Amino acid sequence: MSITVEEKNFGLATNPLTEARQMVRCYTLKNTKGMSVSLIQLGATIQSISLPDGSKKVEDVCLGFDDIAGYVTNKAAYIGGTLGRVANRVANGGFTMDDTTVDLTRNVEDQFHLHGGFVGFDSVIWEVEQKTPQGVVFRHESPHGHEGYPGTLRCLVTYRLDNENRLFISYEATTDRPTIVNLSSHVYLNLAGHNAGPKGLAEHTVEIASSEIVATDDMQIPTGQLTLVDNTVFDLRSPVVLGERLKQFEDRPIKGFDNCYVVNGGQLLRSTVKVAKIVHPPSGRALEVWTDQPGMQFYTANNISKMAGKKGFHYVKHGSFCVQTEKFPDAVNHQKFPSINLNPNETYRHEVVYWFKIEKICRCCYKK
After folding, report:
1. b/e map of 188-203 (b: 16 or more CB within 10 Å)?
2. DSSP string, 236-298
3. Is 33 helix (H, G, I), strand (E, B) or coil?
4. Does the predicted TM-score (pTM) go above 0.90?
5. Is 45 within 8 Å of 13 (Cβ atoms)?
6. Three-state SS for 198?
7. CB atoms within 10 A of CB 4
8. Please, what is the Cα angle at 274 between 272 and 279, to 5 degrees?
9. Which among 81, 112, 250, 366 is least buried, having the fewest CB atoms inside 10 angstroms?
10. Are 265 and 275 within 8 A, CB to CB?
11. CA 106 to each of CA 118, 239, 241: distance values in angstroms, whole numbers, following the listed order
């Protein structure tokens, strides 16, 4: 049995690049194990991920909205969207390339550039390059000078689902002049269900194969240094219960995780390796993150204020998590960081696999 791909209208949106009204389509991938993933053209966004738990109960574990208005209203949270041209922060919204100063837009308090600027890849309407037997390929061409970036950038994002409950995301990009690229996905997850909130999130265990994080200042701009996680709240090399660990952030300026973990030895690899495992023991749902990237931002939705999500449920602070594979934040301003430069004769590539699993549940430990 193969994967099925169903297509339907999701709603009308204004294309920010042309100001034209455009119909956004939704593509739902379904496998034989009862898992489905819905993707929309707006932002090449993951709108839902539904899968059974240990007792065959199906829940949508991905935060999102039932209509275009939800995504537009809550744009600042980047719910489910594709981040680009450069995910994460660029200090002062600028950098030097080939002895030329490049000024990007500063879309956060006029101080720095975040997630591609005012109209990032999460806000544009991607074209559908093709439907494949396992999924869908989205295409976007970002014009030279958009948000200050040099070069016309052609991007493809491929989503594939298989019968092992693996969601594969592949990014590719090419340019016609030297530029910078660092794409990622801002999918928010809660393995207890998208509406399970802080109580559900607190029950998760988290394990990240990383001994260092990217050190940042009070504005979360990298200092250029890496910090060892030994004897800190950031040490997730053995599984920790998230609710207990989050309590240790109450006296800190940033109330939870929002850190780029150095994975894969801080190198870009030739194939994907498992870098993180997150489990919700009461339901038995587990997620493994496999990637070829040198970094993974782990974020516990610290900045989410109450927003109306799918089916009328409200999303709040510490009610979900993000695992964004990427190169390091502000890499363009730190020579020691893995380079995000892209030249005309090169292809940017980035692979991530979200592998959802069911673990045996110990019924004695968890009272429903």
Report:
1. bbbbbbbbbbbebbbb
2. -SS-EEHHHHHGGGTTSSS-S-EEEEE-GGG---SS-EEEEEEEETTTTEEEEEEESSSEEEE
3. coil
4. yes
5. no
6. helix
7. 14
8. 140
9. 250
10. no
11. 8, 37, 37
Residue 270 to residue 314: CA distance in whole angstroms: 40
- Find all residues with CB under 8 Å of 345, minimum gap 6, and list them: none
CB atoms closer than 10 angstroms to residue 147: 19
Asked whether 194 and 313 are in contact (CB, 8 A), the reply is yes
Tell me how far apart the alpha carbons of residues 70 and 74 are, in angstroms, rounded to a whole number: 6
In tens, the pLDDT along 152-209 reads 999 999 999 999 999 999 999 999 999 999 999 999 999 999 999 999 999 999 999 9
- How would you list the strands of the sheet with 258-262, edge to edge? 222-228, 212-216, 258-262, 295-299, 322-326
Surface-to-core class of residue 27, CB atoms within 10 Å of its CB (0-12 exposed, 13-18 middle, 19+ buried): buried
Q: Could you please report the per-residue DSSP string of 106-161?
A: --BTTTBEETTSTT-TTTSB-EEEEE-SSEEEEEEEEPTTGGG--S-EEEEEEEEE
Alpha-carbon Rg of the chain, whole angstroms?
A: 19
Which residue, chain included where needed, has tokens 């995504």? 71
Q: Among 336, 325, 76, 354, which Cα is nearest to 182's?
A: 325
| Token code pair at residue 218 | 């009070």
Residue 141 Cα distances to 154, 172, 233, 259, 329, angstroms:
4, 12, 41, 30, 23
C-alpha 98: how far from chain center: 30
**Amino acid 19: pLDDT:** 96
- Cβ within 8 Å of residue 137, ≥6 positions away: 128, 129, 130, 131, 156, 157, 158, 159
